[in-house]
Design brief:
mainly alpha
Length: 256
């Protein structure tokens, strides 16, 4: 908690020195790695991920950065090297989509709808291509936002980054533990990583980071447990999916 507070203090300063920017970004990556394995670290993780996305705007312009591999272009180039479109029976894209549509009925705030739409684009992208694709006709599920649908993987990266464009007030309201509709959106984003993994990665790709998978499952079960009685129905799919994921394929999109 102290480290996160110190990191937030640094974000309030203007960083112009390339070495200082790299040092802060390296610290953020360390904190993300730690938060990814914290049983109660769901909110801490998305806070740090937002900080990393904000920092990327400073890293991209300077050519001597040590972290060029974390730019969007480098990340998608890496994805292109390993991508393998599959029709996997080990995932549940349809179930995820149906659950997300249930959650949509709870959303009233524009930023929540924006976050939801980011995940819709991931599903649209998966229906077309794992990495890239264009729609000439409306997608079979969900609304069509433009003629071009980002790749499933590319759309997922963008879904993570969109909170960096929000004001601090908007973001703080979104991560409020009692904002149950937002909590459902956040955990759907984390689980979408595992829904898309078997569709985008070859079967030869190892099931990495079993500890991370168990932490994400723990986050999902915690969200489901904390929901008020009249909202628990919106967690039925994620509870069922986590039971399946716990003992199944956990390939994921190499997200932090």
């Amino acid at each position: 908690v102290t480290a996160i507070r110190m990191m937030n203090e640094q974000f309030g300063k203007e960083l112009t020195n390339a070495q200082d920017i790299d040092a802060l970004f390296g610290s953020v990556l360390c904190l993300m790695s730690q938060a990814a394995l914290m049983p109660e670290g769901m909110i801490e993780y998305i806070v740090i991920a937002r900080g990393a996305s904000i920092l990327m705007r400073s890293i991209v312009p300077h050519e001597k950065t040590l972290f060029a591999m974390f730019t969007k272009e480098a990340h998608l180039a890496m994805a292109d090297a390993v991508i393998s479109e599959n029709l996997s029976e080990t995932t549940d894209l349809d179930g995820f989509w149906a659950s997300l549509q249930q959650v949509r009925t709870l959303l009233t705030e524009p930023r929540q709808v924006e976050f939801y739409e980011g995940m819709v684009k991931c599903v649209d992208g998966a229906r077309v291509s794992a990495l890239d694709g264009k729609l000439s006709e409306p997608c079979s599920v969900g609304p069509t936002y433009s003629n071009f649908v980002p790749a499933a993987w590319g759309a997922y990266a963008l879904a993570y980054q969109q909170v960096a464009l929000w004001t601090n007030e908007e973001f703080n309201e979104f991560i409020n533990p009692e904002n149950y509709s937002a909590q459902l959106l956040i955990i759907h984003l984390f689980l979408l990583d595992y829904v898309l993994g078997p569709l985008c990665l070859p079967e030869t790709m190892p099931n990495n980071s079993p500890a991370r998978k168990l932490v994400v499952i723990g986050w999902a079960r915690d969200v489901a447990h904390r929901l008020p009685g009249d909202v628990k129905v919106y967690a039925e799919w994620l509870t069922t999916y986590c039971n399946k994921l716990e003992h199944g394929d956990w390939r994921y999109l190499l997200s932090p």
